[in-house]
Write a structure and sequence with these properties.
By secondary structure, the chain is mainly α. It contains 28 helices and no strands. 40% of the residues are buried.
Length: 518
């Protein structure tokens, strides 16, 4: 059975073909909040232009659609004129619902504008709270899986809040209602997964997944769930653990007829399948894209940005390096243009990986340096750990080029350990943590032969100390048991951590059990 949303899209198309502009205008306005999920930027722009420019008698939602069509099709000049017109309409209105609606539309369009940073946007929205009260955001994900890297990248909020005592979190709570606050929490979890890894969100995931209403949840909430799951499943982790939630996501988007969101979700699923060894479905999908979009066409817009990025990841996965390089180059340029730092960093580092595999090592290191320089400003780590041995070599080459290894070896005389929170790490500490995580992710899912190599790397003394650690003995107690100095025990413990790529006793025990050492 066709759902309401699918019928609405058919109605849009029917009225457009019949040139019934007034009815089309009315239908678009009544369903303005759903239009961004139902229509591509090109379809929306075409319908708005044929419906006519906004007039004085038109309401705020028609102005919203007009501005949305302009910003989605990168018409910045006309967009600024539309924003000026909206600002003129509400400026001298008395406080009330009408003024609230106009300001809400103005802030939603400002949220869509890539020229306005998330920090500036929150500061602007905060000024209006005392005038009109809480507002709604019509869309945060923009058809992409995830909230933090959706329409407007929110990384800067969480980075600032780390040092600002939650100032922007408090602002967000004052500006928005329960749904937006829940989306904000999803975005925060996604950011933490991208920086410090899943250890920082244990215990929160089930709570956030269960908070989504299975019947009346919004598209943004379901896309937020999908984004978190894809972050968890990078490099083949947690395979099959969240199938029920992903089924609910796909079911909701299919029922609503949100084709753009579905295409993005399916693109990510195909790449995840390739990571876990199911390359047949990935190759079929890539072949379909070659028919759908020629590789010679390097054009990228808001409609295909995420798909193109996943397409590049897919080509890299099946060793089609030149094709991956072309796709990454186009997504890097466009994501930088619209202020999507995470996508830009991922595209630059992916392009560096493709170039490295083609043998152009110097050019690859230059690209990776650009990506790492951009990534450190938001403390990203996850985006650099998805490229296996190639990613590790790129990071090592960058460290050698910048002299980081020499700096760390000198600092290591005073401090051996470079584990901990990436958010509070120094420049040298950040790159040390990044390399450790890249090596750890590279080893995830190793073959039995590779696991045997890790096991044989441990000496008999280290295995014995590891057994004592598993039984709960302290370093001092281990020294007394083995009749060796405390400093010797610490040296062996550090060696165990390095060989197992862990940073704590608990992690060492878990890793050793996974390798059947204990």
């Amino acid at each position: 059975m066709c759902c309401i949303e699918e019928n609405k899209k058919r109605d849009f198309e029917r009225l457009y073909e019949q040139e019934q502009w007034e009815k089309l205008k009315m239908l678009l306005t009544e369903n303005a909040e759903e239009v961004s999920c139902l229509l591509t930027p090109g379809e929306l722009r075409q319908m708005m232009e044929t419906s006519g420019r906004p007039q004085n008698e038109d309401g705020p939602m028609y102005y919203y659609l007009w501005g949305l069509a302009q910003i989605r099709s990168d018409d910045r000049v006309c967009f600024r004129e539309t924003m000026r017109m909206i600002n003129t309409r509400y400026r001298f209105m008395p406080a009330g619902k009408e003024k609230h609606d106009w300001i809400e539309v103005y802030l939603n369009l400002l949220y869509e504008n890539p020229e306005c940073s998330i920090l500036d946007w929150v500061d602007t929205a905060e000024k209006y709270v005392s005038i009109v009260g809480r507002i709604r955001l019509y869309s945060m994900a923009g058809n992409r899986p995830g909230i933090c890297f959706g329409i407007k990248e929110m990384s800067a909020l969480f980075l600032k809040d780390k040092w600002g005592g939650g100032y922007y979190t408090a602002c967000w709570r004052r500006i928005f209602g329960a749904v937006e606050r829940r989306l904000f929490k999803m975005a925060e979890i996604e950011y933490r997964l991208e920086t410090n890894g899943e250890e920082t969100v244990e215990g929160e995931l089930n709570e956030i997944f269960m908070s989504v209403d299975r019947k009346n949840g919004t598209a943004d909430e379901w896309l937020g769930c999908a984004g978190i799951i894809f972050k968890l499943q990078r490099n083949g982790r947690h395979r099959g653990e969240y199938e029920a939630i992903m089924h609910s996501v796909m079911e909701f988007l299919t029922a609503k007829g949100y084709s753009l969101a579905l295409k993005n979700i399916r693109a990510a699923v195909r790449v995840m399948q390739g990571v876990t060894g199911e390359k047949e479905s990935l190759i079929k999908w890539l072949e379909y894209l070659r028919v759908e979009r020629s590789l010679q066409n390097e054009w990228v817009d808001t409609t295909n940005l995420y798909i193109k990025f996943m397409q590049a990841r897919g080509y890299l996965n099946v060793m089609q390096y030149e094709r991956a390089r072309i796709c990454f180059k186009s997504t890097a340029a466009y994501s930088e243009l619209i202020g999507q730092t995470w996508l830009c960093v991922g595209s630059l580092f992916g392009q560096a990986a493709a170039v490295w595999e083609q043998g152009e090592t110097q050019e690859a290191v230059k690209m990776s340096a650009q990506a790492l320089t951009m990534g450190i400003q938001y403390k990203y780590t996850g985006i650099f750990t998805e490229y296996g041995q190639t990613g590790v070599r790129l990071i090592e080459a960058y460290r050698k080029m910048t002299g980081l290894d020499d700096n760390l070896s000198m600092a290591g005389r005073k401090k051996k350990y470079y584990y901990g929170n990436v958010m509070t790490a120094s420049y040298e500490g950040y790159h040390s943590i990044l390399l450790r995580k890249a090596r750890k992710e590279m080893r995830y899912g190793q073959s039995q032969e590779e696991k045997d190599q890790v096991r044989t790397a441990l000496t008999m003394t280290e295995v014995l100390i590891l057994q004592y650690i598993a039984n709960g003995y302290s370093n001092k107690e281990i020294g007394e048991k083995m009749n060796i100095r405390l400093t010797t025990v610490k040296t062996h413990v550090y060696s165990i951590y390095r060989k197992l790529d862990v940073s704590s006793r608990v992690m060492a025990i878990n890793r050793a059990k996974a390798l059947n050492i204990l």
